[in-house]
Amino acid sequence: MNINQSIALSLAHSWNRIRAIMLLGVRQMHNDPIYLVQTFFYAAFNFTLWGIAGRWLHTTYTDNALLQLAMMTTLFASESMVRASLDVMGTLLIDISDRNIANLFASPLAAAEYVLGTFLVALMNQPMVFLLAVLIGNWFCQINILHAPLAVVPFWLTIFISGLGVGLCGASLLISTGRRFFNVIFMLARTAVLIGGTLYPVEGLPLLLRGVARLFPVSYATDAIRLLMMHQIFSWQLLAISVLMSLLYLGGGFYLFLRMFARSKQHGLMRLND
Question: CA 67, 73, 79, 84: dihedral to nearest 10 degrees?
Answer without folding.
Answer: -150
